[in-house]
């Protein structure tokens, strides 16, 4: 399924680990550069601004090709309009394949063709089905998942997450008022199932090629789970979808459940993140706590905004101060000390990298030693009492 050479993918992992070792102070800059020089890697861009520039350039190239095809096909008029997006999607797929064969990965040019392919598939299905949302979301989900599995494209995984969620929502709309009423609980259940499924897939990974994409999907599930039953989201969607108007002195159905959910889930996220040392869940828990406070203030302004911000700042300062004071001397577990190295499940062949870079041994090259071992004639030094 993966279009790229597995050897280059493994080299990319080794280069990433070499960079991690360098940041941790285990190898020198020269050793890191030596490793990057000796290993063949992808043509990629780590600078986000440069990558955006190449994306714009790739989009211009993609649009130029599609425009040239349209000049020829315009003679067919209405018939061409019905199939043009399918042709553009095929052009995008062909361009993605060509760039992948030339080892372009996360470069910007490949982003333009991969995302263009998914977008044109959505347009093509929309034209064919007269804008049937569920079918459009379904086929975009399939296309984006295929693009991720074949090109290891993280943005495609993000598109898949949004598309499959949109497909669920549109399917629930098909059931009318009942589907719209139970949509929060359906979305919550869907997010929970997908979270544990992606977690299991991550734990069972043999090769780490799909790790980042699964981690992205796993994080998306955490966000979806919280937002699905957040009081503000549910109340505003109820007004939008069901036309429910909350009169003074009344509230939405199951209001106490949504209130409790809004505040309990961020705390659960925070406790679980501290217990498992999950940084992504920790960040999400902080954002969720902030959004929960905003949810209550959106409807119930207990204090003036300037007073609330001042008190909130004092509370956060106190929490940060005492947390740092308590954790700054700890050497293990939850600590305030900076990481010397960023541990990950992909920490592959780290010792081999250190040895290779130290002694100048090229990776994957066997070196025959000129020394005769065993007799102490040169390097034994003690086996026969002489050097």
Automatic annotation (TrEMBL):
Which keywords annotate this record? Membrane, Transmembrane, Transmembrane helix
Record keyword Ligase present = no
Q: Where are the transmembrane segments?
A: 48-73, 112-128, 154-172, 178-197, 209-234, 254-271, 280-301, 307-324
Q: What name goes with this protein? A: Membrane protein DUF2157
Recorded source organism is Flavobacterium cutihirudinis
């Amino acid at each position: 399924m993966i279009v790229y050479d597995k050897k280059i993918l493994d080299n990319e992992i080794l280069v990433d680990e070499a960079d991690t070792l360098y940041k941790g102070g285990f190898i020198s800059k020269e050793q890191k550069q030596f490793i990057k020089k000796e290993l063949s890697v992808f043509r990629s861009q780590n600078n986000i601004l440069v990558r955006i520039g190449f994306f714009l350039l790739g989009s211009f190239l993609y649009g130029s090709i599609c425009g040239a095809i349209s000049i020829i096909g315009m003679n067919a008029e209405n018939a061409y309009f019905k199939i043009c997006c399918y042709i553009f999607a095929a052009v995008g797929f062909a361009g993605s394949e060509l760039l992948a064969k030339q080892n372009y990965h996360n470069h910007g040019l490949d982003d333009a063709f991969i995302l263009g392919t998914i977008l044109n598939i959505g347009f093509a299905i929309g034209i064919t089905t007269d804008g049937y949302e569920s079918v459009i979301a379904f086929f975009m989900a399939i296309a984006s998942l295929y693009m991720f599995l074949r090109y290891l494209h993280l943005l495609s995984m993000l598109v898949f997450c949004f598309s499959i969620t949109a497909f669920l929502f549109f399917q629930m709309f098909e059931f009318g008022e009942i589907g719209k009423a139970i949509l929060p609980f359906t979305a919550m259940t869907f997010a929970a199932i997908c979270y544990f499924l992606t977690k299991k897939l991550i734990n069972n990974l043999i090769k780490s090629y799909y790790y980042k994409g699964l981690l992205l999907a796993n994080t998306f599930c955490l966000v979806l789970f919280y937002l699905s039953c957040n009081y503000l989201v549910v109340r505003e969607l109820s007004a939008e979808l069901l036309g429910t108007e909350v009169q003074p002195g009344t509230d939405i159905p199951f209001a106490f459940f949504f209130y409790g959910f809004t505040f309990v889930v961020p705390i659960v996220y925070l406790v679980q993140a501290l217990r498992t040392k999950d940084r992504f869940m920790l960040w999400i828990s902080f954002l969720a706590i902030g959004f929960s406070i905003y949810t209550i203030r959106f409807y119930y302004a207990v204090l003036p905004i300037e007073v609330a911000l001042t008190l909130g700042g004092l509370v956060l300062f106190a929490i940060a101060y005492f947390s740092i004071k308590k954790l700054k001397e700890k050497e293990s577990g939850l600590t305030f000390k900076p990481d010397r190295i960023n541990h990950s499940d992909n920490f592959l062949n780290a010792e081999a990298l250190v040895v290779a870079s130290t002694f100048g041994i090229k990776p994957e090259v066997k070196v025959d030693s000129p020394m005769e071992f065993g007799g102490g004639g040169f390097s034994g030094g003690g086996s026969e009492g002489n050097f």
